[in-house]
Task: structure prediction
Amino acid sequence: MFDKSLRGGSRRGAPLGLACRGTAVRTLAGVILFAALWYGCGDSTDPVEVFTLSVAPSDTTVAAAAGSIEVRVKSNTAWTVSHQSDWFTVVPAEGDGDQMLVVSFAENEAPDERADTITVSAGDLSEEIRVAQTGATILVIAPTDTTVAAAGSLSVSITSNTNWTISSLAGILSLNESEGSGDGTVMAAWGINPSEAPRVDTVRVTAGDLTREMTFTQAGGALSSDSISLSATRDNTIFEESTPENSISNGSGQFLFSGRTKLVQVRRCLLAFELEGKVPAGSRILSATLTLHMSRTIVGSESFGLHRLLSDWGEGDSDAGGNEGRGIAAESSDATWDHSFFNTTTWLTPGGDFEPVASGVTAVGGSGSYSWSDSLMAVDLQSWVDDPDSNFGWLLSGNETRTTAKRFDSRENPNAANRPVLMIEFRVPGP
Result:
């Protein structure tokens, strides 16, 4: 009843139902694969968001005084602020998008700079802001008050961490500096009080907004005053080109020389005046004026300073003759560039041992007489009256960086009117 070929075919192949189900499975798998490939290869329509964060300024330095600054935050997302400092605050502590931060800081009362970092964070992003504050200005002077009687000088000590200026308000005190920076010392000098009433001056030091003052009071006196005119007791010129093997001087010459010659050779002249027996012991020096006559030069006006000598020196018999500008071989006890006394004693420093700060300065021009008069000269004389063994006189020097040489008349000059003269005003001790 049945076709054998059909039965045989049924046996050789899969059952009809199973064959149809296999085809369907394969078709479904293909659809799924196609869909997956299509989705994977197609363009995405969802954007990927990129976060941004920046700050400005990122580094700033502020003054020591209390105040505030603004910092701009630029971002497209939420952010927070953090820091460890206790000397400033930041407002706001968090935000979203662009915004200004206000950094408020207290006064820095310490002398040293202080600094800290503000961190702004947004997700994985962070930016830092360095804030530094300068140290407070320091200004201390000592002493702040002093009372004196006689002419004299003192050191004003200044402690600071910045630039400063110093001045004498009444002008009684003579200061060797008018400004400085950092720690320093300024010499203040004064003469005798010519009045019976006390006099007062104020030294004012200013650094930025800070001001410090020293009050100076000098007692009046009831001593009688007197004056005396003294001739030099010794003078000489020392010559830079002099050597220990070829020593040059001009101890007994008619002229003295100071400054630098056109041959680039330096001259310095030495002068001393005997006070002992002329100015009574215990006297107070009111003023001092040295007058020299300048008799030859090839240059215009130049400044010449008197410097207190710190070592004794000699005047021998050397006399160059003529114009004397080149000097002559030194004689026994002459002062030379290397020797204070030829040829037994040398200066500690070649060229003479003297105080670097001039006791008096005067501009010297053409031929004629010129005077030096300064409160520091009175201080020098007072020290010599009080301690005669320290009286080594003065060294006169000019600008030694260019041609400035001048010829002055010495105590041996035949014209007595042109010889060096020291006029001293003083007060003698009371009974």
